[in-house]
Amino acid sequence: MQIEHFNHQHLLQFFEVIEKDENIHCKACYLEITSQAYVKCAISTTPEHESQRLKEIQRESRLCFSSQDHKLSFINFRHEPYVNFKCSVCCLAILGPTYKCDDCRYVVHESCLGFPGEIHLPILQGSPLYPVVIGKGHRCRACGGTLDPYSISYSYCYLQSQYYLNFHLRCANSLKRAIESDSHKHPIFYFGTECQELFANMSEMLTTDSFFKCDKCNKPCSGVPFYRCLICDINLHLKCVPIPHLIKSKCHIHSFSLKDCFIEDDSGEYYCDVCEEERQPNDHVYYCEECDGLFVAHIECVLNQVEGTEPGAEASSNLQSYFQKNFLPGLEQM
Predict the structure, then answer these.
(1) Which of 248, 266, 257 is nearest to 305 (CA)?
(2) What is the pLDDT of residues 218-262, one digit of tens each?
(3) 12, 26 in Cβ contact below 8 A?
(4) pTM above 0.90, yes or no
(5) Which H/E stretch holds residue 256?
(6) Helix segments in the chain, DSSP class H
């Protein structure tokens, strides 16, 4: 028996018996085939209608971020999560439209593919970080959690040195802005709802109740946004920082109110009206009630202007010195 598959140029042959001592792995899910029917993965992803088949062929024509010679394959897991693999970006179960690179061995939700090919963080003097497919034995320098093999992280290497800093993609986004607080001597960073989804699927969080615990009230930070100091490896709830609920800032004529989230429309794109960079709609923000939501800003953008400093200026210099001393030996001489 032969079948067609939208992701393969040849007909697929059904084999009822696997020969003794054969070691066969499925080209779609990478798992070893132990049953008699080893075209099952192909059948499960075959579109029911020709029009859908053509749409999915079009969607598959994407290239790997790591190599333009690698072509991404499109698979749509429609009915139930694919529990054998997690998304290499968000660590959540694979479900729905998905892309995979057979050469780099990563699997990514279609919705997670939009990460930038380069980011710049003030804590690293604005030097670029690039996405890489990580190997074994690496940890995120922001949260301290393990980076799973074949996960995609942002990596920083100073010139030709052999010193690398690796970050979860979502953790790296949390390091774009910092605040200075009287509660702590170092800059602290907001780890929001996207990071909470990531942490909830990390093995350390599943086995250790105290992986993230507030160092002021000693209660867990898991499941809620919190602030974190990379230098001291401490965490603080927003109420333990504390973040003021009402504040007047130089960046707007009216006072701001703290909100745990704000979604002004259904566009799917939301921005801070101070720095004009994208913001996560489910994260805490400062909101102008008098403008009826027409002015919304990151907490850090508002607080740093209250203090009369440029956003992230002091935070940048503090952490640059820390990273140079602890992670990048010889950085200042290069």
Answers:
(1) 248
(2) 988 878 899 998 888 888 899 888 888 999 988 899 999 999 998
(3) no
(4) no
(5) strand 255-259
(6) 40-44, 50-59, 169-174, 193-200, 203-207, 299-306, 313-326
